[in-house]
Amino acid sequence: MDYVSTRNNSESLKFKDIFIKGLADDGGLFLPKSLHKYNQSDLLEFKKLEYNELAKKIIYPFIGDFMSENDLSRIIDKSYSVFRKKNVVNLVEIGDRSILELFHGPTLAFKDIAMQLLGNFYDYYLNNENEKINIVVATSGDTGAAAIDAIKGKKNVNIFVLHPNNRISPIQRRLMTTGKDNNVFNIAIEGNFDDCQNLVKAMFADKTFSSDIKMSGVNSINWARIIAQCVYYFYCFSLIEDNKAPVNFSVPTGNFGDVYAGYLAKKIGLPINKFIVATNQNDILYRAITKGDYHVEDVLETISPSMDIQIASNFERLIYDLNDQNDLRTADVMKNIKEKGKYEINKENLDKINLNFLSSRLDENEVLNVIKTIYQKFDIVLDPHSAIGYGAFDKVNIKGNNIVLATAHPCKFPEAIEKAINLKVELPKEIAFVLNEKENYDIVENNLNSIKQHIKERV
Questions:
Q1: Catalytic (active-site) positions
Q2: Per the confidence metrics, is the pTM higher than 0.70?
Q3: Vertex 257, ends 445 and 6: CA angle to 5°?
Q4: What pLDDT sits at residue 130?
């Protein structure tokens, strides 16, 4: 499979190149030049498969030049052996909808599903190529912990994680900062997640710096994460008993990566009706999808910190589609967003978006009320992000098999849960030790040169 950048589709690359690069040299995101498509017969075959076997079928066509099917099979089995559920995810009915629990990995968030795989992909690549690389990643809370767990202790690779200082939950931070592996470096930036993400993008754009340190990235812009996340949409579909009713997914998202993975599943043949893009008060995606107003505003601090984002990086992949895969037009749109902080989506493109995507927005009180109502009615605790996904369906009149992606374990957000239902949710025993461990991270100003210097001194 050949890949191109959303901002320059004249140059073709293979999976190995785009996996290690993460971000294109021109600042664009990678996409396949063309997609294979599954038919009804394929989907019926997929229904018979357990999660690992399905993952091998879905992922291999995207990465065939990178490794053999046998190597991929071994890596997938290894990656998912650390999950608490045999089939990685779990589908649970709650009232008139279901939730797909994606938080049974080592750091209790959906990010583990892709990140464990990526960590082993890096291991495979570095062993074969005899290289050393440095991963630099921004996190709004969950990506960092998942990436660290996947990379820690591995040879020939360091990981530098930038998180917004005092803007993630204490549990999220402790899952990142209490490790003792000497290839892990935590950096708290005086700013918000968008500041962290912008710093990482600027480091990628600095060809001298990124080349000198052999920089790679595992943010949701890395295509390997998208294809890994695509799998659980297929697996969830195979668990649905009523195949006659339309299937809709509500996805709590800030960076548009998780919902784009579902859109990819639809593009390659999964008959999904609609995606509900569920946002908190940082609602740029809600405004874009409902009114065509992609206008960057100040980031608000909320009880769902993983979604405290205003620049949804993966939205560029959808913009590329809307512009009929015109790379020059996409580059122009992204330049305007960077310089002016806005993109007005015309009526024709908005209609195209709404064929696949609707959106809902919940404020803080609404999120707390959803957590409280679900607990009182069903004795189930949802984390704030999953609650936003659940509550989003109440604001969109859509019938069918309505499925919510539950993206994180509630114990990661104890203050929000206590505020909503006056309950202390315990950490699973496997990771409760982080509460008593010494934390290790450096606080650095929101300055590109300072960050580059900080990283260079530790490479």
A1: 111
A2: yes
A3: 90
A4: 81
